[in-house]
UniProtKB/TrEMBL annotation:
The active site is at residue 200. Binds 1 zinc ion per subunit. It comes from Neobacillus rhizosphaerae. Substrate binds at residues 14, 16. The gene is add. This is Adenosine deaminase. Belongs to the metallo-dependent hydrolases superfamily. Adenosine and AMP deaminases family. Adenosine deaminase subfamily. NCBIfam families: aden_deam.
Length: 335
């Protein structure tokens, strides 16, 4: 199968992990921002995490440089537009992009301005390309509970206008869910959907708590439910959808190599899985590449692909009209 031609859906992609290196250099030159290098190849070595990363924390260090150029409304709008443009070029029909607004306040932008700029970039792309999108607001687990409340409160006015969900991300420690019960409960009350990063770094119990304490409908990664029977059973029973990111999981050492990734085993056992990039630049990947890796590694057939695509449709936080359109792409073979 040629995955660059097939319709695709992406539910787990970080804005700040998916910048074009050329754009970083261009903005840095315009604004006098110092970079380790203004040569593309040298900068890429700073931006792209190797497959032999030691840990998730080493992987996360790659986000420092992109955030330097994500501190103005114009830049955020441009970067958002370019991400959706890049996705559209490989026939991604729908995409949910997540980002942490509080990382972009360094030069005085308000959270409102930040969220609005990213939505504007997405809408610019929707107007030019055959792609639809939505935005997920991430709260950093390394920040205070108060900061999570701030994101929830400031983002609520954008619900139904481009923002659909709330997320918790960054370094994963055991038991983090208990700390954020109240802000996530408030988010659900306001109408946010809930997806939580959990089970990425060897702590399957975090997935259990994300579902039971936070009401997570989807889990970012969730690899380590394989080592926690209670989490595995809850995910399977409640049909919680896993947003799996194979290349990223190899880089962060969630799995040693592609062949040991549990995505296909989960899929065959009735757990709902989706395929995603996580970070297009940091992981040096695309949706076409992720699909190719998974389907080559596990000899998955066209029927499997259709099932995973339709799982993505059902799991996405889009409205009913968008979902119906997305189903037609796979049923009718529309390009």
């Amino acid at each position: 199968m040629n995955f660059s031609l097939l319709p695709k859906i992406e539910l787990h992609c970080h804005l700040d992990g998916s910048l074009r290196p050329e754009t970083i250099i261009d903005i840095a030159k315009q604004e006098g921002i110092r970079l380790p290098s203004v040569e593309i190849e040298a900068l890429e070595r700073e931006l792209i995490a190797p497959l032999n990363c030691e840990s998730l924390d080493e992987y996360l260090k790659r986000f420092a440089i992109p955030n330097l150029v994500m501190q103005s409304k114009e830049n955020l709008r441009r970067i958002s537009f370019e991400l959706f443009e890049d996705a559209a070029q490989e026939n991604v029909k729908y995409m949910e992009v997540r980002f942490a607004p509080l990382l972009h306040t360094v030069k005085g932008l308000s959270v409102d301005e930040i969220i609005e700029s990213v939505i504007d970039g997405m809408k610019d792309a929707e107007a030019q390309f055959d792609i639809k999108g939505n935005i997920i607001l991430s709260c950093m687990r390394t920040m205070s509970v108060e900061s999570a409340f701030e994101v929830v409160e400031d983002g609520k006015k954008f619900l139904g206008k481009g923002v659909v969900a709330i997320d918790l991300c960054a370094s994963e420690e055991e038991g983090f869910c208990g700390k954020f019960v109240e802000p996530i409960a408030l988010a659900r009350e306001y109408g946010y959907r809930v997806t939580i990063h959990a089970g990425e770094t060897g702590i399957g119990k975090n997935v259990l708590e994300a579902v039971e304490l936070l009401g997570a409908e989807r889990i970012g990664h969730g690899v380590f439910i394989k080592d926690c029977v209670e989490a595995y059973d809850v995910v399977k029973e409640k049909q919680v959808v896993l947003e799996m990111c194979p290349t990223s999981n190899v880089q962060t050492k969630a799995v040693p190599q592609y062949s040991e990734h549990p995505i296909y085993q989960f899929h065959k056992d009735g757990i709902k899985v989706t395929v995603n990039t996580d970070n297009r630049t940091v992981s040096d990947t695309t949706m076409a590449n992720e699909c190719t890796v998974v389907f080559n590694e596990f000899n998955i057939n066209e029927e499997d692909y259709q099932q995973i695509y339709l799982t993505s449709v059902e799991a996405c936080f889009a409205d009913g009209e968008t979902k119906e359109k997305l189903k037609k792409y796979i049923y009718n073979g529309e390009q």
